[in-house]
Write a structure and sequence with these properties.
224 residues, alpha+beta, three-stranded antiparallel β-sheet, 11 strands
Length: 224
């Protein structure tokens, strides 16, 4: 009677990021709506002009960018004594800019920090190109299956059995009663950054971590 082995194989690969998408916000507030709105629109046009100078999908520092619609709202705050204060009007807009050149990314952000009063850097999302990500996913899946086969054979060898034969391979979790795969894309990799003082003022340093691409598979083998 054949002996059955159910094992899990996994593999991870690490790759330095190839793209960095800056998520920024331009925002102002004040006692009247129009001045806040006009200031955001003015700064947005300046940001768009700076991006357009760098944008070239083929070989420019910026490969892609987008802007949201300007959003406005008002709120009536309270002071520490519980008294409601006059309306404060807000205006803000989000911008995303994807860079392939991380040095230019740091320079671009540094200039905006010093020139746009309402500028806020919400983070930098690091990623691989689509082609490289697909290539790594294929590689780690193959290695995960190989790891599962190796583990099954080691169990069979420990029992003095012959060569194992695969009967089922699936994403992790799908060979059990519940058929929903485990794992997933995981959280996006954001940046670590620091500002250091130099002779020319503050200089932004970006420290992207490697992107991890991993795979887990469950496999069932039998051996006589």
């Amino acid at each position: 009677m054949p002996t059955e082995f159910t094992v899990r194989g996994s593999h991870s690969a690490f790759q330095p990021p190839e793209r960095g998408t800056a998520h920024i916000t331009l925002a102002f507030q004040g006692p009247a709506l129009q001045p806040a709105y006009d200031r955001v629109v003015h700064d947005l046009e300046a940001v768009k002009a700076s991006v357009q100078e760098l944008h070239d999908p083929a070989d420019g520092p910026v490969t892609w960018w987008s802007t949201q619609h300007v959003r406005t709202w008002a709120q009536r705050p309270w002071n520490k004594d519980g008294k409601q204060l006059p309306l404060v009007h807000h205006a803000s807009v989000g911008v995303q800019v994807k860079f392939r050149d991380f040095g230019r990314l740091a320079t671009w952000v540094g200039r905006l920090v010093s020139s746009a009063e309402g500028f806020r850097l919400d983070g930098v999302e690091w990623a691989l190109t689509e082609a490289r990500r697909v290539e790594l996913e294929r590689t780690v899946r193959v290695r995960a299956v190989q790891e599962a086969a190796r583990r099954a054979q080691e169990y069979a060898d420990a029992l003095g059995l012959g060569t194992v034969r695969p009967v089922a391979v699936a994403d992790a979790g799908m060979l059990s009663q519940g058929i929903s795969p485990m794992g997933g894309g995981g959280p996006a990799a954001y940046m670590r950054m620091a500002a250091k003082e130099s002779g020319g003022g503050a200089e932004l340093e970006l420290a992207p971590e490697d992107i991890e691409v991993s795979a887990e598979v469950d496999a069932r083998f039998v051996a006589e």
